[in-house]
Amino acid sequence: VASLLPAFIFVARLNVVSKAGIDVTAIAQQESEKFYQYSRNYTFTDTLVLTEVTSAYTIATGGAGEKILTRTASGANIKVTLWNNTPNTGMVKIRVEVSLVNNPQNALPEQIDSILLFKLV
């Protein structure tokens, strides 16, 4: 029994880290889908002034036309970066980065990159 104890502890810890990783991935996916829905219904500019966006995120302007939206929710730090400097009108690159606030298991952060086609008018 004593020889199996380290293996049991390892598997239990691995299970906790895996769950944390799944949670971070789910939050990143939800954030990405939220901005996909915005892109279907609003222009890029209109999205950034929506009350539900301005009340949930701190919005900063980065270089080369990027907007950086940050917030903490569900025990995670969420950063959404939007680049509106693509050659095609309405096309916006998006990166969603999520990391756990309290991360004793050292779960890795999650990142989702995509391109959104925002409504033009």
Structure, explained:
Strands 1-2-3-4-5 form a five-stranded antiparallel beta sheet, covered by helices on one side. The model has no long low-confidence stretch (mean pLDDT 87). By secondary structure, it is of the alpha+beta class. 39% of the residues lie in helices and 31% in strands.
Beta-strand percent range: 25-35%
Question: How many strands?
Answer: 5
Largest β sheet strand count, sense and barrel closure? 5 strands, antiparallel
Q: Based on Cα principal axes, name the global outline.
A: elongated
- Count of runs of 4 or more consecutive helical residues: 3
**Spans with pLDDT under 50 lasting ≥5 residues?**
none
State the helicity in percent bands.
25-40%
Element pattern in H and E: HHHEEEEE
Give the neighbour order of strands across the main sheet.
1-2-3-4-5
Oligomer: single chain
Overall pLDDT, averaged? 87
Rg from alpha-carbon coordinates: 18 Å
Terminus-to-terminus distance: 68 Å
The structural class is alpha+beta
